[in-house]
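Hey team,

Sharing the Aminotransferase class IV run so nobody has to redo it. Sequence (252 residues) first:
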Amino acid sequence: MIVRAVVEGRAVDADARFALEARYGHFTAMQVRDRRTRGLAHHLDRLAAANLEVFGAALDRAAVLGSIRAVLGDDLRDAGVRVYVVEHDGRPRVVATAAPPTEVSARPQRVTAVAYQRYLPHIKKAAGFAQAHIRRAAGPLGFDEALLTTGDGLISEGAITNVGCLSGGRLLWPDAPMLHGTAMRLLEDLDVPQERRPLRVADLPGFDLVFLCNSHGVVAVGEVDGVPLRQDAETLARLLAFYDALPWDPLD
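Structure output:
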């Protein structure tokens, strides 16, 4: 539920916010606690790279930070914040929205594999009907998230997450087109050998731990399409301890 929205620093009503948010453009999503967020530089870098590709223009980082501060106002210290850069009246506009904060589930997630590949997956696009539909369809079936795959089960990412696997002390990421998410970027600093390799749904039961990550946090995957997965307690504890110890960057 959106509690506040601003367009280029100016407060707007819900209808105006919706009209802008649904347009052509890109965005990033972050969790804010005590007016701080993890990986602020990664969020800004994502927006800057996408802006060059989508609009052929440099990003005004000061405008983005100003919009985040404006949507938080003087009263919001904890929130889920999204920053969109969307086309309106022939030019890109910065739109920021604030919603109640979201905490990652501590419960191992149930996931289902869905054959779907996003267009320009490296860009977090403002309009995402397909992913929203996939997650809505998975929910009533008892699944928390969907893994996006090719027809023969090659994993790229989750519908709104990145997917990682830990095996024998190595951190494995899918070698496939995907969004290089901010949480994934932060976990790439974990001091273990890491590599990208083709990962298939059928491979997952053989790993010590399969996990999902996004701005909400990191959570283990308990099963995929009813098949239970290993959840090595020591491996999970080390991963969560690393993520929980990451610094929060000030927004003021």
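Residues 40-55 form the longest helix (16 residues).

Ping me if you want the raw files.
A.
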